[in-house]
Amino acid sequence: PLFALIRFTRPEYALVAFIGLACGLIHPSFVPKLPFLGGAVGAADLALAMLALYVAVVHFVRKSPRDLRPVQHKTGAALLMRNAYIGFMVLLMVAVIASLTLKGLEKGVVLGEARDLGYLLVLPLAIAILDTPVRQIRFVRAFVALGLLFSVGQILQGLFDIPVFGSSGRLEVLETLGQKEYGATRSLTRGINIIIMSLLLLVGGYVLGRIPRLAFFVMAGLLGAGIFLTFGRTTFAVVGLSVSLIVVWLNPKQIPELASVFFLALVIAIAGVAFFKPAAISGVIDRVTNTGTELRSGASAQWRYEEAQFMIPKIVANPFLGIGLGAEY
Fold this sequence. Notes:
Blueprint: H1 2-9, H2 11-22, E1 33-36, E2 39-42, H3 43-60, H4 76-101, H5 107-118, H6 122-129, H7 133-160, E3 169-176, E4 179-189, H8 192-207, H9 213-228, H10 233-250, H11 255-276, H12 278-289, H13 291-297, H14 302-317
Antiparallel strand pairs: 1-2, 3-4
Helix pairs in contact: 1-2, 1-3, 2-3, 2-7, 3-6, 4-5, 7-8, 7-9, 8-9, 8-10, 9-11, 11-12
């Protein structure tokens, strides 16, 4: 009921709520599910269906209750979105039917994979919902708040070994070149992309002069700590490159000031992590300094090569329908 109310009064907030549910912000034990066709329909599934219903009613039907004829969208963007939406749904249904009939896969596995793919429908829905500057601003602010929540969960997991996200996240001992650092916990969540995007949005807002320095300092420090505790070297590199590109693109004159603020926030964040988990600092240093050795030895990439050896023949043998949703290879 609360989600339904938000959907009609502030659909941009309902969109953020769906993203949080889909990425596992709430522990699975507290998320209700409804039995359906041998599987279960979760809160995120219901939220997506309600968002789709909202867009259908508001954007494809006239707002007057006495005139429910379809709206004649004549713009190229509207037609492109509609055709892409319909095409995606048709292809998804074909994939489900082929997986169940031609491939003989289990219904629960197929529907689970189809549900994950169905979440991509949120992209055209977001375009339709965020149709005014006011809604776009509200969405960005709520999205950054969501990223901060995920980052706080990351910090609780990585520093205090609290399974905040349950099965939606992972806690594991940090390992580099076969050597385990038992004093360092690697914290992972499906919301890591939300954290990264929130940081990039903050950087963009700051270099454009729309975010106060102190607010940026605090929020960037929280988000940076959440990213730090993933111990992902590729993640570190991508975030650094993305931040650099955003600053150069939007306001290169802000580079010195942003660098000093980022450096201070990084120092404080690292000091906080070192206070609670000193092994985390040595662990990330080992991972960064051993990157070259690991690449030369192939330890990190070897499983990807092995996976490709099994995957490529399957693609060649099944070029059109594939091997089915959720099939093992």
